[in-house]
C-alpha cells in the first residue's frame, strides 16, 4: 500500500509498504480522508520533537471498513466510520475511569504507536475506537471530529459560572472551540486572531472575532456586558501554545478568571508568577479527549450541528503530500484544514 514516511526534519517521501491484516480486536479501514494537523507540521519540521523518523503520521481520519480481525462482530466491510485515535494501557486508574487521555502509557495513532498512521491507504484501529457515520456526512468533514472533541474536552474546564469566554488563536482548534461553544450555548464568545480571513470564519461560526489585542477585547466586553466586564473575560482558552499567546491569554482573563491551556507547541514558557497569584487567576491544562467526548462529537456531526464545510481549505493526494507539508512549514500556504485523500 502507498504511505507517506517521515524521514526526519523537513523530509518525507511516498513509499509502498506491506499491507497487513487486522489483529485480534482490530478493524482495518480504507482511509478516505486524513487531515493535516498543525502538530503534524510542527513534527515534520522537528520543532516539537514529537515525530520519529521512519514513522507514518496522520491521526485525524475517517474511512470505510474493509476487514475485521478475530473477535470483532460489531463492524462489517462497507461500514462508514470515524476513529478515536487514543489507545490506553487498559489497566491504570485513568483508563478504568474513562480518562484514557491521562494514561501514562497512552498511544496516539499516527503519533507514537509504532504502527502505521493514516497518511496511508489503510490503517488498523481497535474496534472499540470507532463510531458510525451517517451516509450523508463527507469523510473530509467527519475527520474534524478530532479537533472538535479536543475542543469539547477543553471547554469542560470552563467554570459553570462563566458568562464570557475568550479564545486566543483562530487556527483549526480556535475555530473548533468556537463551533462547539456555539452548540453548547453557554457563553458569549470572543475569538482573538490577527488574520482577517480567520476572523471572518470565526464570525461565521458564531464568535465575535477581534484582533489579538487585549485592550480591544476589554472594550468589547465593556460595551456588551458593562463596565465591570472590562476587567477581562471570565474564562480564556489559549489555542496556540507559544509564550506570546499564553501571556495574551493571561492578560485577557479577569481577576479570579480561568485560563485553559490547550495549545502546547512550546515545551516551556516563562510565566508572570506575581500577576497570576496576585490576581488569583486559575490555570488549567487540558490534553486530547476521551471516548465519551469523541462519541458526543460524532453524534453532533451526524445531526448536522456544525458548519464544517468552510473548515476544509484544501485537499491533496498522497503523492502531493510532501510538497504540501513543505509549503505549510515554509509559510507559503495558509490553511485551516488541508485533507489528504489517499
TrEMBL record:
SMART domains with a match to the protein in the record: PKS_ER
Family, per entry: Belongs to the zinc-containing alcohol dehydrogenase family.
Cofactor: Zn(2+)
Keywords, in A-Z order: Metal-binding, Oxidoreductase, Zinc
Membrane spanning residue stretches: none
UniProt domain Enoyl reductase (ER): residue ranges: 8-340
Gene3D superfamilies given in the database record: Medium-chain alcohol dehydrogenases, catalytic domain, NAD(P)-binding Rossmann-like Domain
MF (Gene Ontology): L-threonine 3-dehydrogenase activity; zinc ion binding
EC number: 1.1.1.103
Lineage, opening ranks: Bacteria, Pseudomonadati, Planctomycetota, Planctomycetia, Kolteriales
Entry protein name: L-threonine 3-dehydrogenase
Gene (name only): tdh
Species in which this protein is naturally found: Kolteria novifilia
